[in-house]
Each structure stands twice: as C-alpha cells, then as structure tokens.
Amino acid sequence: MTVAVLGAGKIGEALLSGLLDAGHDAGDLLFTERHPERAAELTDRYGVAGVEVAEAAKRADVLVVAVKPQDIEPLLDELAGLIGPGSLVVSMCAGLPTSLFERRLPAGTPVIRVMPNTPMLVGAAMSAVSPGKHATDEQLQTVERLLSSVGKVVVLPESQQDAVTALSGSGPAYFFYLVEAMIDAGILLGLPRAVAQQLIVQAAVGAGTMLEEGGEHPVMLRENVTSPGGTTINGIRELEKHGVRAALLDAIESARDRSVELGKAHEE
Ligand SMILES: NC(=O)c1ccc[n+]([C@@H]2O[C@H](COP(=O)([O-])OP(=O)(O)OC[C@H]3O[C@@H](n4cnc5c(N)ncnc54)[C@H](OP(=O)(O)O)[C@@H]3O)[C@@H](O)[C@H]2O)c1
C-alpha cells in the first residue's frame, strides 16, 4: 500500500517519521511540498520521495491531506481533477468536515477524517478517526491499522471531532505550556535551568506513566501527593485561587469554537 502525505509540515513530517520508525518502507511513502528546499530536506532526512500532487494521486492508495485548513481550497481544486476511483482520502485538517471533501472531489470518493497529534513523531499519537459517508468498514480498518503503528486510535462520530481537536489535537501544547511554566518556577526558586527542566520533564513522564499504567483516577493520584498540612496543598490552594481549572475549561472550549469556525469558513 502506498501512502502519500499532501503537505509535509509538522504533522505530515511526524506521520512520515512515525511510519518509517514503525517499519514502513520508504519506497511505499510519498509526500508533496510547495517549497523545493523543504522537499529536499525531507528526502535527505527520510529517504522518501517528494512528488507533484498529480503523481501522488496516481501512485498512492491513501492520500493523507495535511495542509493547514486555510490552504485547503487550492489543493481541493487540484485534487478534483486527479483523484482516481481507487483512492482513499484521509484528512488531518482541523475543523474541516468530510462533507467538504465529498462535495469538492469526484462523486463517491471515500473520505476519512482524522485528528492526530504531534506525539506521532515518537510513536505516541492519539488519533481520533471518523468515516465520511462513502468510506467502507474495510477502508476505516486500513486507516486504523496505519495509525495504530504510530500511536493509539479511537473511532468516533464526526460530530465529536471539534471537541477531539481541542482536547487531544491541541492537548500536547497545553502540557508543554505547563512544563514551560513549571521550569520557570524552578528558575524563580534558584535552580539551574537544566536541573529544573530535568526535574519537571521526569515528573511529567512519571505522572503520564502512572496515569496510563496504574489505572487509578487522576483525583486519587493527586490526593496521594497531597498530605494533610503538607506542601502540595499550599500549591493547590494557589492554583484554585488563580482559577486554573476554569482557565483550562475556557481554553479548551475556545479551541473547540475555533475548530467549528474553521469548518464554517468552507461552508457553501
Ligand atoms: N501541528 C499539530 O499539532 C496538528 C495536530 C493535529 C492536526 N493538525 C492539522 O494538520 C494540518 C497541518 O498542520 P501543521 O501544523 O503540520 O501545519 P504546517 O506545519 O504549516 O504544514 C502544512 C504544510 O503543507 C504545505 N502545503 C500547503 N499547501 C500545500 C499544497 N497545496 N501542496 C503541498 N504542500 C502544501 C505547507 O507549505 P508552506 O510552508 O508553503 O505553507 C506546509 O509545509 C492542519 O490542517 C492542522 O489542523 C496539526
């Protein structure tokens, strides 16, 4: 099976890199890019061929669209004249509904919407997958198999994709932001930056592993660190005082709203 990534930016590169790490052959992968220097850089790094969209459409069984939502229109115009009956289109574009692709590509083109995230780069993606109206169960399984090689996969109704985009698509950025702020706190307390970074990164990795492997609820895990009269509860009081929980609820709701807005921009 040949997979072509249309738009090998951050997420497209993460997919190529993750698929190669998972044992996919570089000869079975293709990508398209607008800038020749970027294409050359990717080919040097991964040994994957950069091609024109027309060649990708001709050779690939699966076309993964990974351009920014704002760049979708010209790509759809180009693809409309190129897509063959055997092609499966997978969109990773935030906010864009499968109906947009179905409307603009040849009638009956199977489309599957995916919201991945950048931990794909290290084989730890969370991808949520929703089939469009022409995608078969077999095609859905093909995409699930492909993405399972670079992380975890859930199949969800497309109506939940804007929420998924806000939660797990953007989620890594919120964790990076927290880690960044906690490193700053270490600096404030006089620790060398490298030490602060090592301490917080390992705390994050350890907490992530406990969340994933221990099966305990996050509330229990936090309570286990929060002894009566101890240090952690003082910190929690400050987090509550500053409304950090409410800020996270607002932040993720706002990201969801932006995903909805990106989709609306392409409505007829
Ligand atoms: N980054 C994330 O964490 C993340 C997570 C989940 C989903 N996504 C989705 O993934 C998509 C890509 O996001 P990104 O962060 O990877 O953006 P990005 O780094 O800007 O990557 C998009 C790439 O596509 C290229 N491109 C644009 N139009 C093209 C065309 N017609 N033909 C070939 N290449 C084209 C762009 O080139 P230029 O440099 O010329 O613009 C750029 O290299 C978005 O729709 C986003 O919603 C991203």
Average pLDDT score: 96
CATH superfamily of the largest domain: NAD(P)-binding Rossmann-like Domain
Helical percent range?
A: 40-55%
- Strand adjacency order, main sheet: 3-2-1-4-5-6-7-8
- Can you tell me the CATH topology of the largest domain? Rossmann fold
CATH class of the largest domain: Alpha Beta
Describe the main β-sheet briefly: 8 strands, mixed
Low-confidence stretches: none
What share of residues are in beta strands? Answer: 5-15%
Structure description:
It is elongated and about 70 Å long. It folds into 2 domains: 3-161, NAD(P)-binding Rossmann-like Domain (Rossmann fold); 171-260, ProC C-terminal domain-like fold, CATH 1.10.3730. An 8-stranded mixed beta sheet has the order 3-2-1-4-5-6-7-8, sandwiched between helices. The protein is 54% helix and 13% strand. It is an alpha/beta fold and 268 residues long. Helix 7 (161-169) crosses helix 12 (244-264) and helix 8 packs across helix 9 (193-213). The site of NADP nicotinamide-adenine-dinucleotide phosphate has 25 residues, from helix 1 and helix 4.
